[in-house]
């Protein structure tokens, strides 16, 4: 392969192929509630969690007319096509009937699920699909404080004084009121259930239990794999500010680096969106290189991008 062949698009394609090959092996669904260990059990589901948000609407109608339209415009559901793509990738791996899932038919069901809801609110929406093709849509209102943020900061922004601050101290020296990210010292084994979002979440639930993290906390746990490399968060993809050498011109530059798919991490929708935008890149993050107090990006389809401070 020549240097010309190694475009960012081709590199991502190669990584995806490595990831797919890595998990091209048999798997079994853990036995729950004394049922037979049967891969056709409808209690095992694949799912995605997305955000309905009136602030993301970008259609031609005014907002009031738009929220009363049937079906709702796709832009109300942040990165909807990316969520569909993610479900279809999981469906292909687990052999679920997801190929016919499209924006048009999903929008009809999403609209029906919100029919009696106040669509000026933002909602957490969970779409689950079983092996037999049955699927459910559940939603719950998000608090006003749960704001979608999609800005990817440069690290030097933390050296600046916040605009609303009366102090002359830069942001990184001020009291931290954002997310805290805790390193889990227990290693996690990558499996198909870490690569795809499924109802089997023991790896993540156990990590959260070790830090007593409950829903709504501004706390997250950072998982490491059995090679002592960073994997991901329990509910988020992660990215670290690291110096990289360009493979072509050998120049050094700093970028936000997220673990590559070959590590066994999940291909989250925000992660994939930012990779395509060139705002983050893939790489390997050794645990031994982590620094206590460094800033880390947390990313998922519900909250967008948040900054966390790492606690070792």
UniProtKB/TrEMBL annotation:
<dbReference type="InterPro" id="IPR001544">
    <property type="entry name" value="Aminotrans_IV"/>
</dbReference>
<dbReference type="InterPro" id="IPR036038">
    <property type="entry name" value="Aminotransferase-like"/>
</dbReference>
<dbReference type="Pfam" id="PF01063">
    <property type="entry name" value="Aminotran_4"/>
</dbReference>
<dbReference type="InterPro" id="IPR043131">
    <property type="entry name" value="BCAT-like_N"/>
</dbReference>
<protein>
    <recommendedName>
        <fullName>Aminodeoxychorismate lyase</fullName>
    </recommendedName>
</protein>
<dbReference type="InterPro" id="IPR043132">
    <property type="entry name" value="BCAT-like_C"/>
</dbReference>
<dbReference type="GO" id="GO:0003824">
    <property type="term" value="F:catalytic activity"/>
</dbReference>
């Amino acid at each position: 392969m020549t240097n010309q062949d190694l475009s960012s698009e081709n590199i991502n394609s190669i990584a995806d192929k490595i990831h797919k090959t890595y998990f091209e092996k048999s798997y079994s669904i853990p036995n729950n509630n004394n049922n037979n260990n049967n891969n056709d059990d409808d209690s095992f589901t694949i799912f995605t969690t997305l955000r309905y948000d009136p602030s993301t609407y970008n259609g031609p109608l005014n907002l009031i007319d738009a929220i009363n339209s049937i079906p709702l415009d796709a832009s109300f559901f942040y990165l909807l096509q990316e969520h569909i793509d993610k479900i279809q990738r999981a469906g292909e791996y687990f052999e679920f009937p997801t190929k016919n899932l499209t924006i048009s038919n999903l929008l009809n069901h999403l609209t029906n699920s919100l029919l009696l809801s106040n669509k000026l609110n933002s909602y957490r929406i969970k779409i689950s699909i079983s092996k037999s093709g049955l699927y459910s849509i559940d939603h719950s209102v998000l608090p006003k404080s749960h704001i979608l943020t999609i800005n990817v900061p440069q690290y030097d922004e933390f050296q600046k004084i916040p605009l609303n601050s009366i102090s002359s101290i830069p942001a990184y020296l001020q009291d931290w009121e954002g997310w805290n990210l805790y390193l889990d010292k227990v290693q996690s084994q990558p499996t198909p259930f870490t690569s795809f979002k499924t109802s089997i979440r023991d790896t993540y639930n156990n990590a959260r239990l070790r830090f007593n993290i409950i829903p709504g906390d501004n706390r997250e746990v950072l998982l490491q794999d059995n090679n002592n490399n960073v994997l991901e968060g329990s509910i988020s993809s992660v990215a670290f500010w690291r110096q990289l050498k360009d493979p072509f011109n050998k120049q050094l530059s700093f970028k936000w680096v997220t673990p590559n798919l070959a590590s066994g991490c999940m291909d989250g929708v925000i992660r994939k969106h930012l990779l395509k935008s060139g705002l983050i890149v893939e790489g390997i993050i050794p645990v031994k290189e982590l620094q206590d107090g460094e800033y880390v990006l947390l990313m998922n389809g519900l909250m967008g991008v948040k900054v966390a401070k790492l606690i070792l």
